[in-house]
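Quick one before lunch.
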Amino acid sequence: MTAIQSLERTAAAPLEAPRIPPPMALLAELTHRCPLACPYCSNPLQLTGLREELTTEEWIRVFAEAAALGILHLHLSGGEPASRRDLVDLTKAAADLGLYTNLITSGVGLTEGRVQQLSDAGLDHVQLSLQGANAAMADHVGGYRGGYERKMAVAEWVRQAGIPLTVNAVCHKQNMDQLDEMLDLAVRLGARRIEIATVQFHGWAERNREALMPTQEQVVRTNATVAAARERLKGVLVIDYVPADHHSTYPKACMGGWGRIGLNVEPSGKVLPCHAASTIPSLRFDNVRERPLADIWYRGDAFNAFRGDAWMQEPCRSCERKHIDFGGCRCQAMALAGDPAATDPVCIRSPLRPMLEAAAASDGAATPGAFVYRTMKPQ
Ligand code: SF4
Ligand code: FES
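Model of the FE2/S2 (inorganic) cluster complex:
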């Protein structure tokens, strides 16, 4: 074949579908059971009961499929993963498969002995949630008396076991003004990193908007607190920060882009591109009980629904930021625009932005009432 023939062949060939890289991370929601009841929980409103949960063997098969698919990071999450009696066995199986294991926990359900067993099983990292800088705030937000004391103990056991610790702090109207104290506490607990995430308004948080939405002044103060702390704590504590997106100019690249970096497996084995994806009624989700994980990632309908940019509408379609934020969050577009392919209303270019700003200002100014706590009972 001549060079020209070769070029003609290339020109005539159908365009190849863009290559999809393998995912980096799997979030395994081992269970929805949890002693805490945080009013912004990222789990769905309709929670999965014990009887529907994947068995130990099923989870281990999923981990093996994940490792074969090229996944590197396994986040053992929930609900509260320590509610699973087989947590140590699952951790050992994952570590033996070469996965980097990260336990995302409230601490409640862990004992000193269990932390040591997890360490012996090969657990690489612990992320401990912190709902406030003191027992009064933390136990109020978590809806669990004694939770704060247990977290303090767990942090110490994790430190003694030599497992690297990150503190996770979800910030909102009621605890944001304690941020400096939470940063100091993270340092005292021996954490190497803190993740400060402003609450995202899906699911349970959407039901608690007036109790959780910060004011614009709080957001500005928090941004300044984080900037100052990053200077002050350089070399001591790494600070990751997710600012309030209702008060930002552009949306965040939710999940790093749909179907680009990671996937979630729910307790029943349903596989989601993000934790809130079930709020999009047009999507159909596969289950690891019925289809191999690799097939779901590469060929699953839900994963391909918002990959690339062909699904985008204006103004995203012709926007220079479309490969930076991927049009924002699909679940937020669904919740606020009623269309999962719409521009995220957080974006300053969305026609719905004025409505979003007005709602955020009004919820921010509202006096917080009682929380609607997360519960396993049907709502
Ligand atoms: Fe992002 Fe779309 Fe807004 Fe552009 S128009 S900044 S792509 S959300
Ligand atoms: Fe689903 Fe943002 S939470 S895409």
